[in-house]
Specification:
The chain is α+β, with helices and mostly antiparallel strands. It is built from two helices and five strands. Strands 1, 2, 3, 4 and 5 form a five-stranded antiparallel β-sheet that branches.
Length: 70
Amino acid sequence: MTDETHTKNTASQIDPKLLEILVCPLTKQALTYDAEHQELVSRAARLAYPIREGIPIMLPEEARELTEET
């Protein structure tokens, strides 16, 4: 496995223990992990927080608003 492949595999997953402790900064509710979009989703706030290079960006101004389809 090359370093690039290892980086992609590592970046495409989130540590389950981290997911257990992270909450939405607005609602303080649990988040769900969307591997396809590399986001942490807050259904309560209807926001999706991006994960960039394996790091969750937990800033509401960086989050994407969820639409009815998502």
